[in-house]
Amino acid sequence: MRLLPFAISALALTLPAAAQAQSVPATPAGKEALEILKEAVDVPTVAGRGNVPKLAEKLTARLVAGGFDPKDISFTPVEGTDTGYFMARYPGKDRAAKPVVINVHLDVVEARPEDWERDPFTALVENGYVFGRGSVDNKGDLSMIMATVLKLKRAGWVPSRDLVLGISGDEETLMRSTAKLAETLKNAELVLNGDGGGGELSSDFKPIVYSVQAAEKSYADFKLTVTDEGGHSSRPGSFNAIGAMSRALAKVDAYRFPAQLSPLTKAYWEGTAKAAPADVAAAMRAFAADPTDKAASDLLSSRSEYVGLVRTTCVPTMVNGGHAANALPQSVTANINCRIFPGTSRAQAGEILKQVIGDPRVTLEMMDDGSIESPESPLRKDVMDAVSKAVHERVPGLTIVPQMSAGASDSMYFRALGIPSYGVSAIFMRADDEFSHGLNERLPLDTIDPGVKQWETLLRTLLK
Ligand SMILES: [Zn+2]
Fold it and tell me: How far is the CA of 330 from the centre of ligand 1 (A)?
């Protein structure tokens, strides 16, 4: 998953007429990252095609050629899937210390060549971009991380403790490899995730903010059901299943969970206010000072890029019922989709919905979709200092804010095991260029050289 944190991302499906001319990478490590990226995009690691091990083999070959011990590299298939997880250990000075993990994922979202302007599985460098499925999500950071560790290894650098590339193979689908990977690395000190956070550029390519993803909301679907004996529509009784479901859905639609503030979102609002328009900035500051300030939370909730950060949200997303135009409905079902603030369990959210609906004839059932609850990661000083150093070397003085995302990334599995995890992508791009999961996904070439440098400084600082 990758979504610019607070871009008003329209996900436009056409390219802007004039993309800014950008140069190809100039440094040896940047050139190598581009080479790795092209090689990775050319392997269609879509679920069901069995190609993840092939990409793992290519990465293994590069790491071994770069001086990694083959014994420190492994690909572990996950039973019942066509994928698995990849690990490469970079031994540190203190072998007994808990390792730092760098996490990304090898798989990509499906792309249909007939829908694309170019073949999604042939990397193409054009107009200052690398086009191809996965060029951003998540092979962009994968390639920069690979180039960085290869550069550090060749330079003879030794981290203070072991550094482990812990790379999943089905982040975009079932995350079964992620679950195994996190379990295998459960003694990790912390995780740096290349599939979250990152730099946002304005439409005229000016850096606006850098985000560190340190939490995500949990996901839950609840199925509501109303059943009735039905009958002929000419003989209605006092109860109608569609009527009962309609009242239940109207209550859910109208209900607002309490506004919430956590250490992370407080820092987010305070940091983001610096770059926001005056009225929004004032609401952010007021909300950060007092989360019961309704005027402030209402204003922030009216904006799609902020609504998810104010509270738990639950919305009706599907409804299905009745079986004939002239019959009383026997069964009506509906789906309520929730994005739950860390600290509230999915079961608790379900209980609240039950109370809101307040009708025993409407039953509620939590659907198991494999997602799990994860706590917010504390904003560790060592991590935030190292990230600041690396980001400020690239863009002096840039605002850095922690971020809570709405979707599920690999980090949730690590956080659920108590391992703090930080989304620190080194990609800087415009919302206009964000096509992850969509058509014509593309990485700006000019993010590669500084991106490799950012990863290098981050690792050298955190693991010195
Ligand atoms: Zn991703």
Answer: 42
